[in-house]
Design a protein that fits this description.
The chain is an alpha/beta fold and 373 residues long. It folds into three domains: 123 residues, Rossmann fold, CATH 3.40.50; 74 residues, no CATH class; 168 residues, 3-Layer(aba) Sandwich (Rossmann fold). The chain contains 15 helices and eight strands. The longest helix has 29 residues. The radius of gyration is 21 Å and the shape is globular. The N and C termini lie far apart (48 Å). The C terminus is likely disordered.
Length: 373
């Protein structure tokens, strides 16, 4: 079995590790490019969201590389993600690819279902071997996320722009190629120390901007046009609470035990949104309310036509929290120059707001007129 997967940030690294440890060939398509998106746009139904189009393009490219099976998230729920696998399977069959669609249910039976799927594609490997491979893959995912959290701080204050990104790419490659679990902690520590030794502007007091929104476009750099990198170039420290390792911990493990780790976020959203609206819409509202006093501003990233995030976007201006929110809708029509112009203007606004107490001798001023939604 040659299993193809779609890209979503660095999720291919733990998957490649798990499949390699179990002797199953994983077909990883090239990182998403304009061709990937064009393929998805060409064959996807009109009006589908960017994650659908990009993952469809990824799966087509995996089939071109010889995949005979493809893996996609599925399940039930309010979000259109529940339709991805069924619709994409039909599209791939219509294109002449006789593939089997393997579905990972993200709404029910999460952990058990995923492990059963891994057992199936690994020719019924023993559970001890599956658990070991799964643990190694998740450990790599956590290591990458720990390094990325440091990257978010360093990008904003590095003296030579681009150095942190170079180190991050090196760490991704090193962790991806690592075959010994025992060496993972050492490599992670080495790269974090390397970041700590970089030349930085010790006098800098960077703006802190939270990134919230739909999980795919938040965590996939191609989808959001390297939003976090561009913010770092502008001297902004990114504050992002959503990582794949966190989602795995919350959704696969704690949720299976009946523990709701999102309870604090949902409680914060309750005055404005009292129930799940699908996707990450409920969490987006809660994250804004919860972190309004910690951040200088918030960027809300969402796929165009994503109804859960459209609900969240329309609620945001109505909350009482005094923090500017910039919404960026991602689709195939988005151009990087336009996005950069909006980012620069937004950062200028945040700098003005931070200086404002000095300019107004401590008076509050009209905060609402400076909020940008």
């Amino acid at each position: 079995m040659r299993v193809g997967i779609p890209h979503a940030g660095n999720i291919y690294i733990p998957l490649r590790t798990i499949f390699k440890e179990l002797g199953t060939e994983l077909v990883v398509p090239p990182p998403s490019t304009r061709r990937t998106l064009d393929l998805g746009v060409r064959y996807a139904p009109e009006g589908t969201c960017l994650p659908f189009k990009l993952t469809l393009g990824n799966l087509i490219e995996a089939c071109e590389l010889g995949a005979d099976s493809v893996l996609q998230a599925g399940g039930i729920g309010i979000c259109r993600l529940s339709y991805y696998a069924k619709v994409q399977k039909q599209i791939l069959h219509d294109l002449g690819y006789d593939i089997e669609m393997l579905t990972f249910d993200v709404s029910q039976n999460k952990l058990v279902g995923l492990l059963q799927l891994i057992k199936r594609v690994s020719n019924n490997s023993p559970w001890s071997k599956i658990i070991s491979a799964f643990h190694f893959g998740l450990a790599k995912l956590a290591a990458l996320d720990n390094i990325e959290k440091v990257i978010h701080k360093v990008r904003a204050v590095e003296l030579e722009k681009g150095t942190a990104n170079k180190i991050f790419k090196e760490s991704i490659k090193a962790i991806d190629e690592l075959s010994e679990h025992a060496a993972l902690k050492k490599i992670t520590t080495e790269y974090i120390e390397k970041l700590g030794q970089m030349a930085k502007d010790d006098r800098a007091d960077p703006l802190k901007v939270g990134i919230i929104g739909e999980i795919f476009v938040v965590l996939d750099p191609f989808s959001n046009m390297d939003l976090e990198v561009e913010l770092g170039k502008l001297g902004v420290e990114v504050k992002r609470s959503l990582f794949f390792s966190q989602w795995t911990k919350f959704s696969l493990f704690l949720n299976s035990l009946g523990i709701d780790e999102w309870k604090r976020v949902h409680k914060a959203a309750m005055p404005y949104l009292k129930r799940d609206v699908g996707g990450d819409g409920w969490e987006s509202v809660g994250e804004k309310v919860l972190h309004a006093k910690e951040y200088d501003g918030i960027i809300h990233v969402a796929p165009f036509t994503c109804m859960p995030e459209t609900v969240a976007q329309n609620i945001m201006p109505s909350t009482k929290e005094d923090i500017p929110v910039l919404t960026i809708l991602c689709d195939e029509q988005m151009a990087k120059p336009g996005m950069l112009t909006r980012l620069e203007a937004f950062v200028d606004l945040l700098k003005f707001r931070r200086r404002r107490p000095k300019l107004t001798s401590g008076t509050r001023g009209n905060r609402e007129n400076l909020s940008w939604h």
